[in-house]
Amino acid sequence: MTTQIVPPLFQKPTIFAPFANLIAAESTRHGGVSPAPFASLNLGINTNDDLANVSENRRRFFSAAGAESMGFASSYQVHGTEVLHATEAGRYEGYDALITNQPNLLVGVTIADCVPILIYDADKQAVAAIHAGWRGTVGGIVSKTLTAMQIQFGTQPETCYAYIGTCIDECSFEVGPEVAAQFMPTFRRDDLNSTKSFIDLKAANRQLLTDFGIPAKQIELSAYSTVQHNADYFSYRAEAGQTGRMLAAIGIKK
User: Fold this and answer.
1) In its keyword annotation, does this UniProt entry include Hydrolase (predicted)?
2) Were 24 and a residue from 86, 100, 202, 250 both cysteine, which residue would form a disulfide, CB within 3.0 to 4.6 Å?
3) CATH number of the CATH domain containing 98
């Protein structure tokens, strides 16, 4: 008899494993009820999927992550750099990063190619969830989020741990010269046979974390790509916009 291997609903970043009171999870596309093209764990409210499917998928995700009793704060994301200090559960609008120090409150962002970034301040017991597309990366949303945590909670970089999650990889993120020009050469690989370039969003956001002072050993990068591992993760680009959304969430469970 062959044992069927069931893919996990989510991954918990290794960097957060030592912290028993911390809930941190990045979903996959497995284990949900949504039909194609949202198959199957679509957690995105702003898709053409049936809302009942998304609600059931979210229930499964939060339950599997051990967060079924926690509140959840998120926002309709606009590819900007605004940061919300969330103090209670709710659906907000216009923010691409959320921070909180409230126990039993998850903050999260939805993604399907953009970079999810989760941050935990182990000293001040505060967290952040960031959605960084190329515009947010260029706009320094990571730096703005960390500065907001410093102002609100007294966060210092040496006590922070960060996870740069699954997103579009450098070899798949091809852009034109107008976008490429906004990135330092360190994070840009130009195609000598065309006007196109390839951007490394993970590396660009890691640089922002280290520029703030977070030690490199306290930063983890996902080994996966939404495009190269499309069987396990949603990719807006690879699936021509007709796809679901993953969720990256973090919070302190009391």
Assistant:
1) yes
2) 250
3) 3.60.140.10
Residue type, 146: L
Tell me whether residue 65 is in a domain: yes
Is 53 part of a structural domain of the chain? Answer: yes
Residue 191 inside a domain? The answer is no
Q: What is the pLDDT of residue 193?
A: 86
237 is in which domain, residue-wise? 18-173+202-252
Q: State how many domains the chain has.
A: 1
CA distances from 147 to 58, 191, 202, 248 (A): 30, 36, 20, 21
Confidence of residue 1 (pLDDT cuts 50, 70, 90): very low
Indicate the average pLDDT of the chain.
96
**Residues 207-234 pLDDT 10s:** 999 999 999 999 999 999 999 999 999 9
Question: Is residue 182 predicted with pLDDT exceeding 60?
Answer: yes
